[in-house]
Design goal:
With about 425 residues, the protein is an alpha+beta fold. Among the domains are: about 40-130, no CATH class; about 130-205 and about 285-340, Herpes Virus-1, CATH 3.30.40.10; about 355-415. It contains twelve helices and twelve strands. It has a three-stranded antiparallel sheet with strand order 4-3-5. A three-stranded antiparallel sheet has the order 9-10-11, with no helix packed on it. Helix 1 (about 20-40) packs across helix 9 (about 340-350) and helix 5 crosses helix 6 (about 265-280). The chain is globular, with a radius of gyration of 29 Å. This is Putative E3 ubiquitin-protein ligase UBR7.
């Protein structure tokens, strides 16, 4: 912490300088994050009646179900109403979960919002997160004993959280990935390695010349890179079927009325692949088998995936059965993603958000509205003039300066009110 010579020769610590814009931006960012996580969940009604909710914000109560007891999860509304004063672990979001609050796992608590619950929710899945432990290191987060700065990333399959340094492969420095599959889930769902070789987000060298090394180390493959340089949704040319390339050429020819070339844009390719996925008759066979024929080597690392990678998974009958057997059928559901849940929450919050100032004005009569607006304009004018002095002098506005301004403003307001004369007609 920097120090400066204070009055009387004493050193005083300098307070960090934070602008009002910084405060407002940080507050807005925190509000948006809260809306994203909580906006898709009901804060007033227990979610139990909805069954196994596709995705919702969840909590675990350390007070009611400490380590050594059976794990249990509670919904957002119950965390407020039934466990408001308890020690809770925030679990972010989980899929296909039904609220446990007040069931047989809670020996001395009855749910206030929905007491008529079954004794157990057999379809729920639990892990160490419900006791506040995360990653393969089984440590809490934040960890008071961990001095290494590291981010936690959630696996899209098991939904556990992992330190970046414990994933076997460092997260891409650019951060341009949407989802992560941990090394344990990659071992269990080994079919994903065939897709990772083509779709996984990899870190290109600084002197990238348009070539990326295949994950199995066999040969180089040319990558179609978007114009903005973002690699996360790059598609390997050798994976584009010839009839798909022809379809893209037809599209480009119709749009430009010019002779088509051999180059294809990422958006055109995605359009063709999307149409093929929606039309089973256009698929010549199992995409997974085609990818496996390219000799893919499995590794003991996590993998990172771009936006919309799930839509490129094979949807043939055999693959869908395999997803079901591995209990990962949710990978075929784009609405299962955390991003889809967050977007749902943001939309809901935007629709419900009201302006407190307008609500206050609407509750007043005409005279009160005029008085409030006049007071607001006076405050704005005087505060602007007051702060302008500091700007002209190039000095920092301190907390004491703001306090002094409002004290003087209130004093002026009282003098104006006391000096007013009232007449009766």
């Amino acid at each position: 912490m920097a120090e400066a010579e204070g009055p009387g020769g004493r050193h005083s610590e300098l307070e960090p300088v934070v602008s009002l814009v910084d405060v407002l931006e940080e507050d807005e960012e925190l509000e948006n994050e809260a809306c994203a996580v909580l906006g898709g969940s009901d804060s007033e009604k227990c979610s139990y009646s909805q069954g196994f909710v596709k995705r919702q914000a969840l909590y675990a109560c350390s007070t009611c179900t400490p380590e050594g007891e059976e794990p249990a999860g509670i919904c957002l509304a119950c965390s407020y109403e039934c466990h408001g004063s308890h020690k809770l672990f925030e679990l972010y979001t989980k899929r296909n979960f039904r609220c446990d609050c007040g069931n047989s796992k809670f020996k001395n608590l009855e749910c206030k919002l929905f007491p008529d619950k079954a004794k157990m929710n057999a379809g729920n899945k639990y892990n160490d997160n419900f006791f506040g432990l995360y990653c393969i290191c089984k440590r809490p987060y934040p960890d008071p004993e961990d001095e290494v700065p590291d981010e936690m990333i959630q696996c899209v399959v098991c939904e556990d959280w992992f330190h970046g340094r414990h994933l076997g492969a460092a997260p891409p420095e650019s951060g341009d990935f949407q989802e992560m599959v941990c090394r344990g889930c990659m071992q269990r769902c080994s079919f994903l390695w065939a897709y990772a070789a083509q779709l996984g987000v990899t870190k290109l060298p600084a002197e990238d010349d348009g070539l990326a090394l295949n994950v199995d180390g066999i040969g180089d493959q040319e990558v179609i890179k978007p114009e903005n340089g973002d690699h996360q949704d790059s598609i390997l040319k050798e994976d584009v079927p010839e009839h798909a390339k022809d379809a893209v050429k037809e599209i480009k020819t119709e749009q430009t009325n010019e002779p088509c070339t051999s180059s294809t844009s990422e958006s055109d390719l995605q359009t063709v692949f999307k149409n093929q996925r929606l039309n089973p008759e256009s698929q010549s066979g199992c995409r997974l088998q085609e990818l496996r024929a390219k000799h893919v080597i499995e590794k003991d690392t996590a993998t990172y995936w771009p936006l919309n990678w799930r839509s490129k998974l094979c949807a043939c009958k055999d693959c869908v059965k395999m997803y079901g057997d591995l209990d990962v059928l949710f990978l075929t559901d784009e609405c299962d993603t955390v991003l889809a849940y967050e977007n749902k929450g943001k939309v809901a919050q935007a629709a419900d958000r009201t302006d407190p100032l307008m609500d206050t004005l609407n509750s007043m009569n005409r005279v009160q509205q005029v008085e409030l607006i006049c007071e607001y304009n006076d405050l704005k004018t005087e505060l602007k003039d007051y702060l302008k002095r500091f700007a002209d002098e190039g000095t920092v506005v301190k907390r004491e300066d703001i306090q002094q301004f409002f004290e003087e403003f209130q004093s002026k307001k009282r003098r104006r009110v006391d000096g007013m004369q009232y007449y009766c007609s």
